[in-house]
User: What shape does this take?
Amino acid sequence: MKNRTTVSDIIAAIAQKIDVMFQGKYQVYTDKTEQDFQVPCFFIRLSQLREDPFFYNRRKKIATFEITFFQKQDNAEERNTVADEMRRILRFLEVATGSIRGIRYEGTISDGVLVMMIQFHYFVTEEYGKEVLMYTLTERRKVKE
Assistant: This one.
């Protein structure tokens, strides 16, 4: 089991959930793709990443992802079904370090393109070097006779 969740792990988990849910019906792109992409498809990209100190060596990360759905033809029913299913399947993701929860789901439609934003909050642990906190202590006593 890995000890750290990465953005790439989350993107891979989102892509896998989409592929399983829609049974490979839609192509999923996770990298920049030039103009020759096949529709219908999904694009997944990191929109924002924030990191806050939490406690000692733990840090809270908040990753916001943008998932864009392109259709072959403008079909409101298909778009609405995809929006509902995406909200449902992205509530929890299984990554190598365990489960992370998706929150703050938002979806907008612009020019027939569905754009969904979702945040994932998770913790990472920073590994600090083993420092010597104290040198050896020698105690000497004499017993009085």
Summary: The mean pLDDT is 86.
